[in-house]
Automatic annotation (TrEMBL), chain A:
One of its GO terms (molecular function) is sulfate adenylyltransferase (ATP) activity. Its EC number is 2.7.7.4. It is an enzyme of class 2 (transferase). GO terms for biological process: sulfate assimilation. PANTHER family: SULFATE ADENYLYLTRANSFERASE SUBUNIT 2 (PTHR43196). NCBIfam families: CysD, PRK05253.1, PRK12563.1. Signal peptide: none annotated. It comes from Taishania pollutisoli. Belongs to the PAPS reductase family. CysD subfamily. Residues 26-252 form the Phosphoadenosine phosphosulphate reductase domain. InterPro entries: PAPS_reduct_dom, Rossmann-like_a/b/a_fold, SO4_adenylTrfase_ssu, Sulfate_adenylyltrnsfr_sub2. Keywords: ATP-binding, Nucleotide-binding, Nucleotidyltransferase, Transferase. The keyword Nucleotidyltransferase applies. This is Sulfate adenylyltransferase subunit 2.
From TrEMBL, chain B:
The keyword Transmembrane helix does not apply. Residues 1-214 form the Tr-type G domain. One of its GO terms (biological process) is sulfur compound metabolic process. It holds the Pfam family GTP_EFTU. PROSITE patterns: G_TR_1, G_TR_2. It comes from the Bacteria. This is sulfate adenylyltransferase. It comes from Taishania pollutisoli. The keyword GTP-binding applies. The lineage of its organism: Bacteria, Pseudomonadati, Bacteroidota, Flavobacteriia, Flavobacteriales. Keywords: ATP-binding, GTP-binding, Nucleotide-binding, Nucleotidyltransferase, Transferase. One of its GO terms (molecular function) is GTP binding. Its EC number is 2.7.7.4.
């Protein structure tokens, strides 16, 4: 078996089955984005004709694209799998945490509170996520089985050695493991896999016309009720698509006429900007922004 | 397209991160926004206008601050011919365990030698680790050739020295390439400065080297990871054994034995890719149903009924101790994990230690410290399928876990069955 997609797929399925075999209460963190949709597809291959040995869990910031939320609900229903949704809004109200402020009020860092609460509520001992090592340099260091302490923290300097096809998921009560089955996939691998497997995606990944505000970094942010516009803003109508599906408040669109998965692959082969660089406002804060968020319990 | 996984070993001083940075940069795999970030971070002065290529790979704040690699970083790039996964591993002795992690899944090792210094303790250590882990291909990059005036004599002398190091080792294919990573000579493009080198550039070699596993035996080895039991009306009695076929081939109708337990039965169905299929090949994740209703749980092996593997609870293996707390014979409760099998285990005897820089054997003092290599006798509560690691990298490997701390404390390779 030498085809690279077959090898990546086999590795991911192996990791999913190890998670099911080693943990009592795993969960699959589902965002409605392409990476977690691929995880669901891989879970079908890993566990059918049985049911998934875990629920799909979505931490809803309240700032999601409606297309992604509709897609999420429809997918869970079609598959007949359990979907658990927990809202950042509820956490903020209940705990009196101030909401995100500013022109583009990103609840991205605030998700961590809700995620940790949800882990506690259901006593999840393993959370499967679609993060990839090619996304960001702190992620490039993370293991497939990433152990978090009882506060959800990641200690990058004290990671367990992880060898061969052997995954040590032993933990103490209160600890949990974040599992990243597609760690070794790149953005282009994900798209090639979507093409090969004919996987359905939310419509916002493909070209559509959208009214956007042009930010100071020349990024295109869709106008929506969560961001505050003023008379200095440049409002434009463009043909755009999304490279990642995050919050409407912190995910930028890219100009694109790509109408099919083939078009997107062609576009990505010719692009010179990284996925997070093109679309995420939150990683621009500092060189170690992701490392710091992960240490604090982020996905 | 094929996939090649390789790891690089060496110190920052040898130009390891620079070499990787060069591979990524010259193959067009770095996005402009990342180049901008790195350029900003590089202390670009009027005299020095090159960007610090090492910043492309060192990901943690502490690594950037100290200018060293602490943990493995994985990097990805592809050319028209192949896709590559790089495990960039630390060269320092104190991070040997992280090097093991990065090397364990590699098809190929790149060992860097500074042309000015020749073979060092570090070169020997990395070569020995590559030998212990049975890496199929080794590429020795004799780097910083620009600092020895691209001297062929210097290159040849280092080559001869390296062959002395490897004489005692059971190494697979070794290839030498003279490089100057900073300027890119022989990394992606062939060097004009070294016309005497008639071999390929590094990237060209990586694109063409065979990725077929060198010594994997062809006997079927399937390990159960998870039992699928839908318990629906339609699939009331369905019991599917989910796992990966690590080597060999299995077909519907084959007589198989289930281990441990020594039950013989036949394969009733094989499912791959959500479809029924007639056979499974090495590397494929599949679901199998068996003709007889046998109690089989996670960690069990399904092997050909005609050619039984050795099964034993007493084995000899080589381990690398990876925990800060030293091991003392009899003082620590251990678990051994072989794939999906987890069983209580104890190290009965440290037969001898292996010097990680000279490969010399020395008598044991009944203790193992961090990063030490030793040949040990292990007893397990449940019997293991004993494939020597040399014959099967997928089934001949194991880890040891401290039962109290849950930490992975050792990585090991199986050598032989000690049970008569």
């Amino acid at each position: 078996m030498s085809n690279y997609l077959d090898r990546l797929e086999a590795e991911a399925i192996h990791v999913l089955r190890e998670t099911a075999g080693q943990f009592e209460r795993p969960a699959l963190l589902f965002s409605g984005g392409k990476d977690s949709i691929c995880l669901v597809h891989l879970a079908l291959k890993a566990f059918r004709p049985g049911k998934f040995p875990f629920p799909l869990v979505h931490i809803d910031t309240g700032h999601n694209f409606p297309e992604a939320i509709q897609f999420r609900d429809r997918l869970a229903e079609q598959l007949g799998e359990q979907l658990i949704v927990r809202h950042v809004e509820d956490t903020l109200k209940r705990r009196g945490i101030p909401d995100a402020k500013g022109k583009f009020p990103s609840r991205n860092p605030l998700q961590t509170h809700t995620l940790l609460e949800t882990i506690e509520e259901f006593r999840f001992d393993a959370c499967i996520g679609g993060a990839r090592r090619d996304e960001e340099k702190a992620r490039a260091k993370e293991r497939f089985f990433s152990v978090r302490d009882e506060f959800g923290q990641w200690d990058p300097k004290l990671q367990r050695p992880e060898l061969w096809n052997i995954y040590n998921g032993k933990i103490h009560p209160g600890e949990n493991v974040r599992v990243f089955p597609i760690s070794n996939w790149t953005e282009l691998d994900v798209w090639n896999y979507i093409l090969r497997e004919n996987i359905e995606l939310p419509s916002i990944y493909f070209t559509h016309e959208r009214t956007c505000v042009l930010t100071e970094h020349e990024q295109l942010m869709a106008t929506n009720v969560f961001i505050s516009l003023d008379e200095h803003d440049t409002i434009v109508n463009r043909l755009v698509r999304y490279r990642t599906v995050g919050d409407m408040t912190c995910t930028a669109a890219v100009e694109s006429k790509a109408n099919s998965v083939e078009d997107i692959i062609e576009e990505l082969k010719n692009t010179t900007v990284s996925e997070r660089g093109a679309t995420r406002m939150d990683d621009r804060i500092s060189e170690a922004a992701m490392e710091d968020r992960k240490k604090g319990g982020y996905f | 397209m094929e996939l090649l996984r390789f790891f690089t070993a060496g110190n920052v001083d040898d130009g390891k991160s620079t070499l990787i940075g060069r591979l990524l940069l010259d193959s067009g795999s770095i996005s402009t926004d990342i180049i901008e970030t790195v350029t900003r971070q590089s202390k670009v002065t009027g005299e020095n206008t090159t960007i610090d290529l090492a910043l492309l790979t060192d990901g943690l704040r502490a690594e950037r601050e100290q200018g060293i690699t602490i943990d493995v970083a994985y990097k990805y790039f592809s050319t028209d011919r192949r896709k590559f996964i790089i495990a960039d591993t630390p060269g320092h002795a104190q991070y040997t365990r992280n090097m093991f992690t990065g090397a364990s899944t590699a098809d190929l090792a790149i060992i860097l030698v500074d042309a000015r210094n020749g073979i060092t303790e570090q070169t020997r250590r990395h070569t020995i680790i590559s030998a212990v882990l049975g890496i199929p291909h080794i590429v020795v990059c004799i780097n910083k050739m620009d600092l020895v005036n691209y001297s062929e004599a210097c290159y040849e002398a280092i080559k001869a020295d390296f062959s002395k190091v490897t004489a005692a080792l059971d190494l697979n294919q070794v290839t030498f390439i003279p490089t100057a990573a900073l300027s890119g000579e022989n990394v992606v493009h062939s060097s004009k400065q070294m016309p005497w080198h008639t071999g390929k550039s590094l990237l060209s070699f990586l694109e063409n080297v065979s990725v077929q596993p060198a010594q994997l035996h062809d006997k079927a080895r399937f390990q159960v990871q998870y039992v699928i039991r839908p318990q629906t009306e339609k699939l009331h009695d369905y019991r599917g054994y989910a796992g990966t076929l690590w080597s060999g081939k299995l077909q519907v109708g084959d007589e198989v034995q289930v281990l441990p337990g020594a039950f013989f039965t036949r394969i009733q169905t094989i499912e791959h890719n959500l479809k029924m299929t007639e056979s499974a090949d090495a590397g494929q994740p599949v679901v199998m149903q068996l003709e007889d209703d046998i109690d089989i749980s996670r960690g069990a092996w399904i092997v050909p009924g005609s050619e039984l593997p050795e099964v034993s609870d007493t084995v000899q293996g080589t381990i690398c101790w990876m925990d800060n707390t030293p091991f003392r014979t009899g003082a620590m409760k251990l678990l051994l994990q072989q794939g999906s099998l987890n069983t209580k285990a104890s190290i009965k005897e440290i037969s001898y230690k292996i010097d990680i820089e000279t490969f010399e054997k020395s008598p044991s003092d009944d203790a193992l410290k961090l990063n030490e290599l030793a040949s040990v006798c292990i007893r397990t509560a449940e019997p293991l399928v004993v494939d020597s690691y040399k014959e099967n990298r997928n089934t001949g490997a194991f880890i040891l876990i401290n039962e109290y701390t849950n930490q992975t404390v050792a990585a090991g390779v199986l050598e032989r069955n000690l049970q008569a």
